[in-house]
Write a structure and sequence with these properties.
The structure is a single chain. The chain is built from five helices and no strands. By secondary structure, the chain is mostly helical. The protein has one domain. Helix 2 crosses helix 3. It is globular. The two termini are about 30 Å apart.
Length: about 140
């Protein structure tokens, strides 16, 4: 029984690392390719910028055979977050602020608030991983 539990913990840790990497890569895309508030001053421009960043981040992970591109809940989760806290915030924080925030979520699960966010985000991300595992299992069974 102990062996299975450590195996499960390993998988969770591995997934958390992937989810953190994706989140940090997306944050870099959003911040690095952001021009200024005047250039992205309406919902359509913001949505286009965000979708470009999200899709580009997904392509990077697809090269590693991890596909988040069809995970609409994940796309919407981060869109909502960055819409409020980045695109239309009164003052935008430095990129490092967002990176530290997300890294803290994925690596420092000590407070109830962080655990709640991590659990919610893990479930949203995990949809893509479980979908991929089901495809692999299906291919094994039918081949």
């Amino acid at each position: 029984m102990k062996k299975n539990k450590s195996k499960i913990n390993f998988l969770i840790s591995e997934r958390l690392g992937i989810f953190n990497d994706f989140t940090i890569a997306l944050t870099h895309m959003i911040c690095d390719f952001y021009v200024d508030k005047d250039s992205l001053d309406n919902d359509e421009d913001v949505t286009n910028h965000y979708n470009w960043c999200y899709n580009r981040t997904c392509k990077i992970f697809q090269n590693e055979e991890i596909d988040f591109s069809d995970n609409d809940d994940l796309r919407n989760y981060f869109y909502s977050y960055y819409y409020e806290r980045f695109y239309f915030a009164d003052e935008q924080d430095e990129k490092l602020h967002y990176i530290n925030f997300w890294t803290n979520i994925f690596t420092n699960s000590t407070s109830t608030e962080i655990i709640t966010v991590l659990k919610e985000l893990y479930e949203v991300f995990n949809y893509s991983i479980e979908k991929k595992l089901q495809e692999i299992e299906k291919n094994i069974v039918y081949n």
